[in-house]
Design brief:
Blueprint: H1 5-25, H2 30-52, H3 58-64, H4 68-87, H5 89-104, H6 112-124, H7 127-137, H8 143-163, H9 166-188, H10 194-215, H11 229-240
Helix pairs in contact: 1-8, 1-9, 2-8, 2-10, 4-10, 4-11, 5-6, 6-8, 6-9, 7-8, 7-9, 10-11
Length: 242
């Protein structure tokens, strides 16, 4: 397989899962769709908890010091949220989703933007995204991304049944994020330490909690505006490593 094949397979899996999900959507009444949406919210919450659990890795305390990992996540979310709000990232993401909706979606599909944003964040955050893409870029194989693609297929099927074609558009986000990490792996080698990856993963997991709250209609957390936290987390980890 060529370098980058893992990302290509992942995109195909998401698009295929979306197609299957949309195809069966007309067979689901509103009550069933609501239950599916709640189920996705709960599963997203489970994934968020498991991902955020990276903060408990002993290597973080050894490298950063006791208590600092949590403070780094806090600082990353606050700084990232402030930066994203200043740059109006949430509004820009919604604008991008609306433009894609106007271009590709059927008239009246009001959930397109929500599907695009929620699926993009779910599919582009997590240890398999980072480690799998870097490993692929280094020529170490795409097995991790193939596993991720399998998980994303079933997740996109469920999302698409409830949110429609916006889920397929998240393939663009996968291309940019995973493709970017693959290129970093190819040109720069292993540029992130394990501690930096763990801090990014834990921060991303906390952001997934926000997606969970959105899917369950508890609170519309502006997760899109918090995306810069994924940059601050590894940078702060590198700054405070000893």
């Amino acid at each position: 397989m060529f370098i980058g094949s893992g990302t290509a397979i992942n995109i195909v899996a998401v698009v295929l899962g979306t197609f299957v999900g949309v195809s069966i959507a007309h067979r689901l009444d509103q009550h069933v769709r609501s239950v599916v949406m709640d189920g996705l919210g709960l599963v997203t919450g489970m994934i968020a908890v498991l991902t955020t659990a990276a903060i408990t890795d002993p290597s973080l305390t050894e490298t950063l010091g006791k208590g600092r990992p949590v403070l780094i996540v806090l600082a990353s979310i606050v700084l990232g949220g402030a930066t994203g709000a200043a740059l109006r990232l949430e509004e820009r993401l919604e604008s991008l989703g609306d433009r894609l909706k106007a271009r590709f979606a059927a008239e009246g599909e009001s959930t397109f933007t929500e599907g695009f944003v929620a699926a993009s964040l779910l599919f582009c955050i997590g240890p398999m995204t980072i480690l799998g893409s870097i490993t692929d870029g280094l020529g170490g194989g795409n097995q991790m991304l193939i596993l991720k693609s399998t998980l994303d297929f079933f997740a996109s099927l469920g999302f698409a049944a409830a949110l429609g074609w916006g889920v397929a558009a998240s393939g663009l986000s996968i291309l940019v994020v995973q493709g970017g990490f693959t290129l970093f792996g190819y040109f720069l080698g292993n540029f992130m330490t394990n501690v930096e990856i763990l801090m990014l993963t834990a921060t991303g997991g906390l952001m997934l909690v926000g997606i969970c709250l959105r899917l369950l209609n508890i609170k519309q957390v502006p997760v899109g505006s918090m995306l810069p936290a994924l940059i601050y987390a590894p940078l702060l980890a590198a700054l405070f490593s000893h």
